[in-house]
Q: What sequence folds into this?
């Protein structure tokens, strides 16, 4: 499932990989049973390639990792969160178009 | 590719758009399908489809549209991921302006579908993704053993309420009328399900909570009762609105924003056709969208022949 420029994030590595990351990070909270998550996945993949080197991109499966989504009060997927210096910079719920997500990334970088 | 002129561009990749793409490619039209996300449309989030012929045991919405998409792949339908923001008409060709590029075509089939309506009550925007949901198949599992409210009484509301009873045994159905609008077989299932508690003749006044949904305040339409239901989730299925903002000013729309067409699915602008839920019509189903997709391509071919 995980592509070249996308890392797999889980409850164990979330702090190190995302909160302590030197670059801003985008996390796609998803689950296999969610249709819109599959719709947004290729968009996330394209953006991971486009912003390679500037933005860290990860996917977190909420089924296998309930702790992290709980901490951020996530009760809908897909939820995409942009983190900067360990803090939430932008939070987007639902499948959105590439341009919406791209605008949020540019705002955060 | 930006300078080439397509025979046909289809905007929208739900059942209407995919069917149009299939028919167009089999007619060897130089075709492009443009979709905001990935092909599938609203059916992607439909838990289960029991009214589309050919699947005697039913099929998941996601699987059904994925099969439609794979069928168009077999006939090499090109698909571009872009959001079209406007349409310009200068001369007979049509130009579509997207956020990623510009596309020129001789004919256009608009199959951009509908998006879900919001309730428009206080708390709805603030708590989106925090207990307010428009997709039971996406968010249902977050509400295991919690109390949930479903707002609406049509096919989608009832189907999704039934789906949510997999996760919880307490689903309030808040509906503004004294009976459901959904097809009879769904009504019967819902009313026989002990987990579903209908609340008739009632509307939601506000959704309560700051970081999470903590309840919904409802009101009986005759003013007899105001009450707070202690739910953690609110699933809203109060209908849809056409995705036609990008056409305002260039194409005639009805007061609700749907596209009026004639029986050949032609709009008043030569070479522009509409198919599926976005079209002004009485009945919006997967089966009727598929029919529209095929009919529109037939009309496109007649139009191209006469050019």
A:
């Amino acid at each position: 499932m995980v592509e070249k420029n996308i890392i797999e994030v889980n409850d164990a590595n979330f702090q190190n990989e995302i909160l302590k990351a030197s670059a801003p990070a985008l996390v796609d909270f998803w689950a296999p049973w969610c249709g819109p998550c599959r719709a947004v996945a290729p968009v996330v993949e394209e953006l991971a390639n486009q912003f390679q080197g500037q933005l860290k991109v990860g996917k977190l499966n909420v089924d296998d990792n309930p702790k992290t989504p709980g901490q951020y009060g996530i009760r809908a997927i897909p939820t995409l969160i942009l983190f900067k210096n360990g803090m939430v910079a932008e939070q987007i719920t639902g499948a959105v178009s590439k341009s919406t997500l791209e605008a949020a990334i540019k705002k955060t970088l | 590719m930006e300078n080439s002129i397509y025979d046909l561009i289809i905007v929208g990749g739900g059942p209407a758009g995919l069917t149009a793409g299939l028919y167009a490619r089999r007619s060897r039209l130089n075709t492009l399908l443009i979709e905001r996300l990935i092909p599938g449309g609203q059916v992607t989030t439909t838990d289960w489809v029991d009214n589309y012929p050919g699947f005697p045991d039913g099929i998941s919405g996601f699987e059904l549209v994925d099969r439609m998409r794979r069928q168009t792949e077999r006939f090499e339908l090109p698909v571009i991921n872009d959001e079209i923001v406007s349409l310009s008409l200068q001369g007979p060709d049509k130009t579509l302006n997207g956020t990623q590029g510009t596309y020129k075509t001789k004919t256009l089939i608009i199959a951009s579908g509908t998006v879900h309506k919001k309730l428009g009550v206080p708390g709805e925007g603030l708590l989106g993704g925090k207990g307010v949901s428009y997709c039971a198949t996406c968010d249902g599992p977050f509400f295991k053993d919690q109390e949930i409210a479903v707002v609406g009484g049509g096919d989608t509301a009832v189907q999704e309420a039934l789906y949510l009873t997999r996760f919880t045994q307490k689903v309030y159905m808040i509906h503004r009328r004294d009976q459901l609008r959904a097809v009879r077989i769904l009504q019967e299932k819902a009313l026989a399900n002990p987990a579903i508690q209908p609340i008739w003749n009632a509307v939601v006044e506000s959704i309560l909570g700051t970081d999470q949904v903590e309840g919904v305040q409802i009101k009986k339409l005759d003013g007899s009762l105001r009450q707070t239901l202690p739910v953690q989730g609110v699933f809203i299925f109060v209908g849809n609105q056409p995705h036609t903002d990008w056409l305002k000013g260039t194409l005639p729309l009805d007061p609700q924003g749907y596209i009026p067409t004639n029986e050949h699915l032609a709009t008043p602008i030569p070479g522009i056709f509409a198919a599926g839920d976005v079209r002004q019509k009485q009945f919006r189903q997967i089966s009727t969208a598929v029919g529209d997709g095929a009919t529109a391509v037939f009309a496109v071919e007649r139009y191209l022949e006469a050019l």
